[in-house]
Amino acid sequence: MNCILIDDEAAARAIIAHLCSQVETITVLEEFPNAIEAMKFLNKNMVDLIFLDIHMPDFTGFDFIETLKNPPKIVLTTSDVNFAIEAFEYECIVDYLVKPIGMPRFMKAIQKVESSGFSSSKAISESSQTTSSSSEKEMYVNIDRRLIKIEFEKIYLIEAKGDYILIKTEDKKYTVHSTLKKIEEKLPDSLFLKVHRSYIINIKKIIDIEDNSVLIARDVIPISRSNRPELMKRLNLL
Amino acid sequence: MEIPNTTYIDQLAGDDHVFKEKLIKILKKEFPQEILNYENNIKAKAFIKAAKNVHKLKHKFGILGLEKGYTIAIEYEENLKIASTQLQSEFDDILQRANTFVQSL
Description:
Chain A is of the alpha/beta class. Helices cover 27% and strands 35% of the residues of chain A.
């Protein structure tokens, strides 16, 4: 789960970033001292979650939310309990943390976020569409009109599923309306190899190979006879 | 008299000394600046701005385990919003003690 932090207090940002660092499933992409900087970032990047301070100079947390067309989940962080009722008028606001924030309460908020639709099942969308642009380290997939960033090194398997492909990462699965051929063009050759007409694997994630199958994470994937020589060539064999 | 402490910081940091040092460094830098902003706004009788400063300082009181100080800050913030400086001396006293403590860390 990717998140950003918006708070004009450096101490508050440091504390929330530290709390996030204790949770394996959360990655803090950026920290912002004001909403304007965050808006610029969100114009180019997708996030799953925002930790948002309400009281900021010039632009309050609520003003900020109003500017978002398709807001991600938001956890408000504030020293003011008076906004709780207003906060829950916004569907995107999942929780409301009163500073100073302790780990037990923070974990409750994360559980709320996760149960509100950030499990892998949420990411598997029937209305997902096509893959999008690529770069050296990641690509973006269009799911429910949201461009979701997937880091290449986290992907271990891509499977053809009719008109869709299933992208499996270490912690999530994404169903995307695309083809193996299309995604193959976006993937770095140094990491990925098509081992079967229905499967592309991340060769760095291979656990073992036995005859005509490869074990990758918990999936056993068939290797086509025609693809086997290339796979063997790419392995660092003793 | 309530004494500032590092209980919250210690609990938060656990054995992560790097984080603890980082947070203390931030507090040493940020706290005096926030106090200065508050004092300037009080001098200028800009009470709404001062209330916003108190709001930020309140969080620092919480970080430093000043529970009573936090409660006084809440009330003082509300007073400032209606241009009343009631509780200023109590708040200022806690503020100075808290800052002395932070700078001693």
